[in-house]
Design a protein that fits this description.
This protein has 20 helices and 10 strands. With 480 residues, the protein is an alpha/beta fold. A 7-stranded mixed beta sheet has the order 3-2-1-4-5-6-7, with helices on both faces. A 3-stranded antiparallel beta sheet has the order 8-9-10. Bound molecules: NADP nicotinamide-adenine-dinucleotide phosphate.
């Protein structure tokens, strides 16, 4: 084999890069390998060299020279400064038309900057979201590439081959849009993932504390739910986690794990960017805050003696009926999370001129990624029916479903409040639903207050123009 025959190269051979490289090789591509610490390159070839054609390289020059032109160089290193360091090392060795594909979890603003800088050198920088963890990287992830259409023409067929396939056989990859669009969509994907996980966690807590079910019983409930409209990877693994018994103590695994959730940052970015764009993603924000609150151990310890309501356990028959209501609340809240997430993608697309096809995004999340779910096919269908849908709640089917769920949703929140079980995700979702459908919001009063203390002016319901009331004077109204 010639030393310049690799169709693709991967640098950064930790868990993600190594599995992605193997995935390309298993699909028949010759893959050049590189890692800062070359022992990892050698280890990959020793362990998995028989899975396909690999070209192991040690130096940056050797690596770049091993790639056929135009070069396709995938960077799978720690996001942030490491990505800049790697680009600085490789870009001078590359030529016009070559592609650098960043598959790490970069912030989309960094991707926009890197794309702009490399464009000056006529190098295509393809910021690419990859979801599915190490398992997905090996067997088929959901892939969200940004960058130029030319780069997708060259890279797309390879990504389609290694990606997950949805149930209808469609590859879970699409050209999301220019520059940072792919990483933006991956960011929102992770925000939605946080919300999904929080809602599932709240459902678990309610089934445990209000209905009195054991973790094993709740696992069975989740398994049943997984055969219906909540069918999803996250519900499936939740049942597995709840069923698991700790070998050392014989207790349910969930009872021996510290209740302090960690986060890496993409959920937080989703909320920060939503604030900048003025998009209400309250469900996602509550999920991020719930993890953050769980980690404040000293604050929690100091508050543990505060009074709460007297617990009242449900009878067996009541518990069964309550579980059905929780399913309704979970499903309705999930519709709201996705409504908010897709609103953020639409707003980002508008702000940065990406022209993102929302239905295509839903379609590529149907397989490979952490939030994969039967539900996503319905979102795709909603956008197929109407590409400019103002909100998922405007889709007839989703509107009907959420309407049918709302009584149970409210009943669950009444029970949660009465029993003192925190449900920030469910509650935020219902507040969003009620606010959107309201005829009048108290924002009118807020405007009055703003005009009173800051002469910020207000608009009237019956006349055009801006107005200010002379609050300190005779309270007459003046046009502003
Ligand atoms: N883990 C997941 O489930 C997942 C899912 C989706 C996306 N991602 C993203 O995929 C990327 C890779 O993730 P990972 O978990 O496989 O690895 P990681 O722990 O994030 O990064 C380790 C890799 O980065 C390299 N590296 C670190 N600093 C470097 C530098 N200054 N110069 C050159 N190389 C440097 C390391 O090389 P050495 O071996 O020499 O230290 C190693 O190959 C990350 O951006 C991550 O956010 C991860």
């Amino acid at each position: 084999m010639s030393s310049t025959s690799a169709q693709i190269g991967v640098t950064g051979l930790a868990v993600m890069g190594r599995n992605l490289a193997r995935n390309f090789a298993r699909n028949g591509y010759t893959v050049a390998l590189h890692n800062r610490t070359s022992a990892k390159t050698r280890a990959l070839v020793e362990e998995f060299g028989d899975e396909g054609d690999f070209i192991a390289t040690e130096t940056a020059e050797e690596f770049v020279a091993a790639l056929e032109r135009p070069r396709r160089l995938v960077v799978m290193v720690k996001a942030g400064e490491a990505t800049d360091a790697v680009i600085k090392e490789f870009a001078p060795l590359m030529e016009p038309g070559d592609m650098i594909i960043d598959g790490g979890n970069a912030h989309f603003a960094d991707t926009r900057r890197r794309e702009r800088e490399l464009r000056e050198q006529d190098i295509h920088f393809v910021g690419t979201g990859v979801s599915g963890g190490e398992e997905g990287a090996l067997n088929g992830p959901s892939i969200m590439p940004g960058g130029s259409p030319e780069s997708y023409a060259s890279l797309g067929p390879m990504l389609e081959k290694i990606s997950a396939k949805a149930e209808d056989g469609a590859p879970c990859v699409t050209h999301v849009g220019a520059d940072g669009a792919g990483h933006f969509v991956k960011m929102v994907h992770n925000g939605i993932e946080y919300a999904d996980m929080q809602l599932i966690a709240e459902a678990y807590q309610l089934l445990r504390e209000v209905a009195g079910y054991s973790p094993a019983q709740i696992a069975d409930i989740f398994r049943t739910w997984n055969t219906g409209r909540l069918d999803s990877y996250l519900i499936e693994i939740t049942a597995e986690v709840l069923k698991h018994v700790d070998a050392a103590t014989g207790k349910p695994f969930v009872d021996v794990v510290q209740d302090q959730a960690e986060q890496k940052g993409t959920g937080r970015w989703t909320v920060q960017i939503a604030l900048d764009l003025g998009v209400p993603v309250s469900g996602i924000a509550e999920a991020v805050f719930a993890r953050s609150l769980s980690g404040h151990s000293e604050l929690r310890a100091a508050s543990q003696g505060l009074p709460g309501p007297t617990a009242q356990q449900l009878s067996e028959a009541e518990a069964g009926a309550f579980a059905d209501q929780v399913e309704q609340a979970l499903y309705a809240s999930k519709i709201v999370s996705y409504t908010q997430g897709f609103h953020e993608i639409a707003a980002g697309s508008e702000e940065y001129g990406w022209d993102i096809d929302l239905g295509a995004v839903a379609a590529i999340w149907r397989g490979g990624c952490i939030i994969r779910a039967a539900f996503l096919d319905r979102i795709r269908a909603a956008y197929d029916t109407r590409a400019d849908l103002p909100s998922l709640l405007s889709d007839k089917t989703f509107a009907q479903e959420i309407g049918a769920a709302q009584d149970d949703w409210r009943a669950v929140l009444v029970a949660a409040t009465r029993q003192g079980v925190p449900t920030p995700g469910f509650s935020a979702a219902l507040a969003y639903y009620d606010a959107l459908r309201a005829d009048r919001l108290p924002a009118a009063l807020t405007q009055g207050q703003r005009d009173f203390f800051g002469a910020h002016t207000y608009r009237r319901t019956d006349r055009e123009g801006s107005f200010h009331t002379l609050w300190g004077g005779d309270r007459s109204e003046v046009g502003a």
